Every structure is written in C-alpha cells, then in structure tokens.
Amino acid sequence: MSAQTSAQSQPHDATLDAEEVRRFSRIAAEWWDPLGKFRPLHQIGPPRLSFVRSAAVSHFGRDANSLRPLAGLTALDIGCGGGLVSEPLCRMGARTTGIDPSERNIAIAKGHAEPQGLAIDYRAVRVEDLAAAGEAFDIVACLEVVEHVPDVGQFIAACASLVRPGGLAVFSTLNRTFKSWALAIVGAEYVLGWLPRGTHQWDRFVTPEEMTTYAAAAGLTAPRFEGIVYSPFQDQWSLAPETDVNYLVSMVKPA
Questions:
Q1: Is the pTM of this model over 0.85?
Q2: Alpha helix (H) ranges present in the chain?
Q3: Closest CA to 255 of 224, 221, 225, 211
Q4: What structural domains does the chain harbor?
Q5: Which of 2, 42, 100, 149 would suit a FRET pair with 246, their CA atoms being 20 to 30 Å apart?
C-alpha cells in the first residue's frame, strides 16, 4: 500500500487531514501556473524565500552574497506540493528533499525539476515516515502547511524531530485574528477569488504565541518572527514587522 493510499484510508488523524490531501491533489496540475489556483503562493514566494535564505545565512554563518549559500547543507521541504520551495533551496546549493503525502503532487514536482537538472529527492511520504527512519536535516522548512493540520502541536513536534542538533526550522502560516479571517478567507476566497473556497479553516490558524509554545515543547528555541503583507497598489507581497495575518518564524534546535 502506498503512503498516499494509506493516508487517505481514514478521514484524518492528528497530523494529516486526508480531505486536505485530496483537495490539493485535485488541482496539482496548476502548481506551476503563476496565474492559476496557486497564484498567491507564487506571489509570496520571493519574501518567503528571502526570509529562509536570510535565516540560514545568519544561522550557519554563510556568505550573504554567494549564489549558493546553502552548499554543503541538507534541507527538507515538508508539504512540498509541486516544488515551489524545494527548487529554490536546491538552486541555493542545499541537498534538498521534498515530501508530500500526495503522490500526484510529487509526480508534478519531479516532472518539473528533472528537465532542469535539479537533483531533488522527492518522496510521497509523511513526516512520521522520515522520523521513524531516523533522518535529520540541517534546515527543515514547512511553509503554509500547519494551518491545514488537525493537531498543530503534534505536527510541529514531528517536524522538529527532523531538525538535527544545531539545525534550523522555518515555518510560515496564518495568525488567528479577525483581520486574517476577513482578508485570508472572506477576501481571498470569496470576494477576490484568489483561492478556491474552503482552502482555509480559520479555527486552524495558529497565533505566534501558540507557535512559540508548540515549538518550545518540541525542543526548538530562539524564535524570530516576521510578517508578510500585501500592497494592493503595487500588487506585491513583502516582509514587514506586522504578523497579524501571514507570518514566518525561524527557530533553532540547540546543538
């Protein structure tokens, strides 16, 4: 039985909601269409990657001007989808692994990376599968995933177990505020149609305080938060201090 079949044989468990997997599998063909259903992820890509790059360069003492500042490091992209984060991590020099419970997402990711000569280790598995195998990585990135998980605390603990001592974890998600409900759900899904309706459940959004608590319980320290904000006049997303809607956080596993 495949990891995907196994994942979808039950409604959901603590760290995976099978309906969420099916939802993203149905639209997997659009992962690399910058004007399609994943347009918001393409738009927030530059600030997300800037944050990840900056956090890794600072933490590992790398040359900020290098084109491949992550050379020699291993990186894991959890919930990689079609590879929108895995590919840049690989281009920055990291030996990159991308995992997703959807076999269709993984097929799309492989099909996009291989013609470009990007040697990314894509696997249709879950976080727990890597943890059970005792794998660990220098950088663990989990972007726009935790808000789709039933038990965020347990999921973050599983992600943290894959960060090697002295390594770095980076998460991005949505804050649970009235503003995030108005903008990310009502605005983005129902008014502007940026996302398919039902993409997000507001009760699964995670506050920075909750994220800090879950991370600390999982052995991650030194959280550094930064927000991502949208400028309607420039039609552009950028990093900013405000974390009341979208935010990123980097954390360290002590050596």
A1: yes
A2: 3-7, 18-26, 39-60, 86-91, 103-113, 127-132, 152-160, 178-180, 208-217
A3: 221
A4: 3-175+201-252 (3.40.50.150)
A5: 100
